[in-house]
Amino acid sequence: MTDVQTTTDAEHSEQEPQRPATGSTRRLVLLGAGAAGATAVLAACGTSSSSTNANGSDFTDNPGPAGSAGPGTGGDAGSGSNGGSGGSTLAAVGDVPEGGGIIQGDYVITQPVAGTYKAFSKVCTHAGCDVNKIDGGQISCPCHNSKFSIETGQPTSGPATKALPETKVKVDGDNIVAA
User: Fold this and answer.
1) Residue 40 lies in a domain
2) What is the pLDDT of residues 121-141, one digit of tens each?
C-alpha cells in the first residue's frame, strides 16, 4: 500500500507549531555522554608514573635506588650519622640475623651469609606497597604476595617482575652504613 499525503508542507506548517528538532538534541546528548565516557577511560589509562598505594603513601612505578631522596634533597635518608665515614647508619650489625634481615626506616637490610650485608628498598616494585616480613630467605610483600631474594632483591614469586632497588652498604665498626 502507498502512503498518500493529503496536505502540502505549507499547509502542515500552518496547522501545527514547529517542534524542536528532537533527533538532533538526542544525538548531541548521546555524543556528549560518549565523549565523557571516553575521557574517563583515557584518564584512567594515563601514563603517569606516580600514584598512591593502598596504605596511602606515594610511590613511583620507576623508583630510584633505595636511599635516594630525590634531586636536591641531600642524598641518603638514613637514620643518622656514623661518625664521619661518609654514609648514614642503617642498622647495627648485631640486629641483622644471619640468613634473614630486618626492615629499618626505608630499607630491608639482610645478611644472606655470615658477614655479608645487603640493603634494598622496602617498597615493592609491583604496586608500591611496603614489604613487611623476612622469612626463609624471602622478603614478602603483603599486598599481592610478591616475594624477593634476601641475597639479590630479585623477585622469586608473585606478580612483581623487577628487583627491589639495592643500596650499597659496608660495615663500619658495629654499624651497617650506606657506602
Assistant:
1) no
2) 999 999 999 999 999 999 999
Domain annotation covers residue 30: no
Structural contact between residues 28 and 20, judged by C-beta atoms closer than 8 angstroms: no
Dump pLDDT digits (tens) for 14-57. 555 555 555 567 777 777 777 777 776 666 555 444 444 444 44
51 beta partners: 59
* Cα 57 to Cα 45: distance, rounded to the nearest angstrom: 21
Structural domain span for residue 150: 63-69+76-178
Number of domains making up the chain: 1
Written as one string, the DSSP assignment of 67-127 is: T---TTS-S---SSB-SSSSSBEEEEGGGS-TTEEEEETTEEEEEEETTEEEEEESB-TTT
Q: CATH number, domain at 127?
A: 2.102.10.10
Rounded distance, CA 28 to CA 11, Å?
A: 30
Q: Is residue 142 part of a domain?
A: yes
pTM above 0.85, yes or no: no
Please indicate, yes or no, if residue 8 is contained in any of the structural domains: no
Residue 159 to residue 162: CA distance in whole angstroms: 9
